[in-house]
């Protein structure tokens, strides 16, 4: 089964999972709420985590794909849906995958406390994903070990988000590129890359040596993926992205591009960066000044160079590959 066929099969299984979830959860009696949330929940994206989990598992288990495996792999996407809803709440983002984020959608429909309601729906998705992780007909001991790995990756994601949220422009003087890459490793690499690669391999019976290689590949690829996301936010037209842009600047987020620019900047430009990032509200003029500074210090070129270095380390084995970073 090629990538497109696998994606389609997983999307169908994901939709079945959401339908079953809505029937058995506390959402069942609220028809209006179901009609509001279902269209968004049924837009799962490319199912990359589920695909990677399955390919890793199949590589090491030597088994043929079946429906039970598809149902198991969807657990990663249900948990990812939880993470994305939480991420949108943390970032105050109004958009997700070209449409409204869940809390924005609920607000438009005039629900009371839409942010809290979105959080509760996210919790339901998390619980369903965790339960479904054990539906695979495989050795319970391996599933338990893989689940512990999944929990550890989830904890790292939360830790990375916490570190990012508490980092401010006041700390730029003592913030290094290594510090930022560690945050990216925790918040992006661990769940989106390391978890599916390593969990699939654990359940499939991979050796310790293979697990270490897969973990390293996932770490490097996740950082590279996050760096691409930084580029998309800063130069949306050039990179043809439909997502919202300049969110990192508006939110005063301390990113790799900003840290690199600050480290290269002269004293005057350092002060300008701190001044702009210290503002709660930023005008178009502020955004343009930041972009001009990024151009002045060749930030885009530096980001692309680092992505190339990280991508060169990516580990590929018999159909397992970290995501197409340009896809």
Number of strands: 2
Query: What is the fold named in CATH at topology level of the largest domain?
Result: Farnesyl Diphosphate Synthase
CATH architecture of the largest domain: Orthogonal Bundle
Specify the helix fraction band: over 70%
Overview of the molecule:
71% of the residues lie in helices and 1% in strands. By secondary structure, the protein is mostly helical. The protein folds into two domains: 1-137, Farnesyl Diphosphate Synthase (Orthogonal Bundle); 140-327, Orthogonal Bundle (Farnesyl Diphosphate Synthase), CATH 1.10.600. Strands 1-2 form a two-stranded antiparallel ribbon. It is globular, with a radius of gyration of 21 Å. 37% of the residues are buried. The model is unreliable at 317-321 and 323-327 (pLDDT under 50).
Give the topology.
Layout: H1 3-24, H2 31-41, H3 48-61, H4 67-91, E1 95-96, E2 99-100, H5 102-108, H6 114-132, H7 140-166, H8 177-204, H9 208-234, H10 247-250, H11 256-264, H12 267-277, H13 284-296, H14 299-312
Antiparallel strand pairs: 1-2
Briefly summarize what is shown.
The protein has 327 residues and is mostly helical.
What key phrases describe this protein's structure?
disordered C terminus, 2 domains, mainly alpha, 327 residues, two-stranded antiparallel ribbon
């Amino acid at each position: 089964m090629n990538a497109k066929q696998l994606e389609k099969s997983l999307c169908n299984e994901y939709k079945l999972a959401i339908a079953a979830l809505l029937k058995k959860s506390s959402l069942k009696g609220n028809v209006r709420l179901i009609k509001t949330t279902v269209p968004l929940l049924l837009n799962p994206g490319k199912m990359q985590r589920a695909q990677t989990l399955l390919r890793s598992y199949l590589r090491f288990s030597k088994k043929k794909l079946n429906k039970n495996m598809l149902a198991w792999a969807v657990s990663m996407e249900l948990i990812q849906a939880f993470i994305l809803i939480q991420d949108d709440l943390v970032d105050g983002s109004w958009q997700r995958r070209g449409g409204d984020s869940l809390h924005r959608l609920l607000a438009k429909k005039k629900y009371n406390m839409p942010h809290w309601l979105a959080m509760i729906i996210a919790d339901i998705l998390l619980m369903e994903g965790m339960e479904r992780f054990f539906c695979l007909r495989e050795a319970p001991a391996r599933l338990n070990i893989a689940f512990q790995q999944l929990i550890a990756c989830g904890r790292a994601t939360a830790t990375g988000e916490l570190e990012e949220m508490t980092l401010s422009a006041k700390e730029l003087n003592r913030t290094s590129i290594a510090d930022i890459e560690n945050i990216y490793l925790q918040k992006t690499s661990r769940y989106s890359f390391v978890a599916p690669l390593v969990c699939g391999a654990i359940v499939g019976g991979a050796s310790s040596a293979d697990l270490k290689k897969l973990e390293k590949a996932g770490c490097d690829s996740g950082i590279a993926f996050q760096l691409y996301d930084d580029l998309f936010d800063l130069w949306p037209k050039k990179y043809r992205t439909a997502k919202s842009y300049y969110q990192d600047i508006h939110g005063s987020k301390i990113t790799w591009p900003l840290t690199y620019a600050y480290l290269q900047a002269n004293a005057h430009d350092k002060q300008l960066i701190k001044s702009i990032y210290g503002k709660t509200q930023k005008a178009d003029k502020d955004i343009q000044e930041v972009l001009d500074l990024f151009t002045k210090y060749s930030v885009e070129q530096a980001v692309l160079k680092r992505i190339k270095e990280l991508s060169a380390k990516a580990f590929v084995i018999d159909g397992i590959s970290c995501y197409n970073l340009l896809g």
